[in-house]
TrEMBL record:
The lineage of its organism: Bacteria, Pseudomonadati, Pseudomonadota, Alphaproteobacteria, Rhodobacterales. It comes from Aliiroseovarius zhejiangensis. Residues 1-123 form the Aconitase A/isopropylmalate dehydratase small subunit swivel domain. Its EC number is 4.2.1.33. Catalyzes the isomerization between 2-isopropylmalate and 3-isopropylmalate, via the formation of 2-isopropylmaleate. Heterodimer of LeuC and LeuD. The gene is leuD. SUPFAM superfamilies: LeuD/IlvD-like. This is 3-isopropylmalate dehydratase small subunit.
Amino acid sequence: MDKFQKLHGIAAPMPLVNIDTDMIIPKVFLKTIKRSGLGVNLFDEMRYDRQGNEIPDFVLNKPQYRNAEILVAGDNFGCGSSREHAPWAIADFGIKCVISTSFADIFFNNCFKNGILPIVLTQEQVDILMADAEKGANARMTVDLESQEITTSDGVVIPFEVDAFKKHCLLNGLDDIGLTLEKQASIESFEAKAATQRPWV
């Protein structure tokens, strides 16, 4: 998993509330077990018409937001089913940070496991960031995980909270496998000792 330390990028405004995981990645795309390739189908039913043509008014189809790395969203983002394909699709598109007033718990935790930083702020703070994102590609935000601060294009600094363990994992690019491999020496030592003491196992 890539390390998340400081992100300076375009923020896309998506003020819709209750964006569920089926809106993020429709169930028809859940056949794969690969984390790559789902970005093209992120928000598929909102991005494309029935003929597969892009809907120009959808935020991520607009030229200024095609390379967005931050998503400023409405309340209760990621609700619905627990599909991990939702953060897979978000990450594959290139979005590394999602900001909202609240997230569904499973989606929230799945984000951290896939290198995405979900940030919970007050409605007033989200409104400030939403307005900044609406300025387009020239208004870039900075998300600094180490200092736990978001800086708008105008220099407004908004602090945010994040769990210390989850912060450590993102800063060091550690998913569950990476955390396990940190203990590799201890695991190998235990297995060698167990093989000597209980060779019949």
